[in-house]
Amino acid sequence: MQQVIDFHAHLPWWVRDPVEAGRVLVGVWERAGIIRGVAIAVEPSIEAFKARVTEERIYNAVGDMMDYVALSRLPMMNKLVYSPGEAVREHIEVLREHTRSTEEVLKAARELDQILPVASLNPDRGISWNVERLRRVIDEIVGVKIFPTLHFIRPNHRSLGRLYRLLEEEGRIVIVHTGCDPGVWELPAMCSDARPRLVAEAARRYRDLVFVIAHLGSYSALQPGIFFHEALEALGLDNVYSDTSAADPFFVKRAVEEVGGDKLLFGSDYPYITGTEPRDWVNAILELDIPGRVKTAILYNNASRLLERIGL
Ligand SMILES: [Zn+2]
Q1: Local confidence band at 78 (pLDDT 50, 70, 90 cut-offs)
Q2: Which of 32, 135, 169, 248 lies at a CB distance of 3.0 to 4.6 Å from 279, suitable for a disulfide?
Q3: How far is the CA of 204 from the centre of ligand 1 (A)?
Q4: Centre of ligand 1 from the C-alpha of residue 294, in Å
């Protein structure tokens, strides 16, 4: 069986005890030949959501995309159009339910060797608070994830400078969500902060810091591949990698053809792709019409090299 490292997964949210949730994750990994992997904390900002996602903003964002919304048949899209107030309340509930703090992920990782923790930015606290928290656990973590959608922040925003400098000095990495996101963030106007070219801009400023573009910039239910070309361009920088999670395998093959497979990292995004588990995504890579050595690079070697650099 091909050995695999999963560079993008989360603890299942419905198992509240973090160590128990970690055991569930390790169980699905084992069925896929995944020997270790990254578990990413998720700390959305409810306050920022309430302030930014107003009924008026939804109305305008839907207006831009009316044709796609009508064709999509996504239930949430209908709700956004016909009862935006209710849609906002539902989002807040979902965000609360899916919050998984950095501390919880660390707890699971301390018990389970297979789990490598990635912290989340916490946008409700200032940058100083975030930098201090990271400093305390820096030896234990692979790095930090920034969710431009859930966090309402651009990855090239100057305020992140201190955080990036700390990670650069300590040889840790940054993972940035790119593309759209379920719910209101399916509307392109709501996910424009999650563009790979903004990650590339930050990566040009911090040349010794590795940035991982999550999802190849391509996740979007309304427009699959929405920022894929920007992701390819960003991968031209030495310090930019991308994970394959939530991207149609078609885009993985295209990326291999366009920029090679040396900086692609397998990711399952477990448990967020409904109806799948990591082994389905491993099989999807194994079934791609690309050379065998490239498959091994994506599934194992590239991640292993990165982790070695970090010393984990
Ligand atoms: Zn994810």
Answers
A1: confident
A2: 32
A3: 24
A4: 23
Domains of the chain and any CATH numbers = 4-310 (3.20.20.140)
Residue of 115, 32, 35 whose CA lies nearest to 284:
32
CB 7 within 8 A of CB 243: yes
Tell me the CA–centroid distance for residue 290 and ligand 1, in Å: 25
Measure 8 CA to ligand 1 centroid, in angstroms. Answer: 6
ω into residue 117 within 30 of 0, thus cis? Answer: no
The first and second tokens of residue 46, run together, are: 């409810």
Q: How far is CA 166 from the centre of its chain?
A: 21
Please check the confidence at residue 1 and state whether its pLDDT lies above 90: no
Amino acid letter for position 115? I
Segments in 37-154 forming alpha helices (H): 46-52, 55-64, 66-72, 75-82, 84-98, 102-111, 127-137, 148-151
Is the pLDDT at 71 greater than 80? The verdict is no
Q: Which of 238, 201, 189, 241 is nearest to 217 (CA)?
A: 241
Stretch 19-24: mean pLDDT, rounded?
98
Chain segment 168-177, per-residue pLDDT in tens = 999 999 999 9
- Enter the pTM of the model: 0.95
Strand partners, 115: 37
The per-residue pLDDT for range 28-64, each reduced to its tens digit, is 999 999 999 999 999 998 888 988 888 888 888 888 7
Q: Tokens representing 15?
A: 């198992």
Coil vs helix vs strand at 32: coil
- pLDDT (0 to 100) of residue 56: 85
CA of 10 to the centre of ligand 1 (A): 7
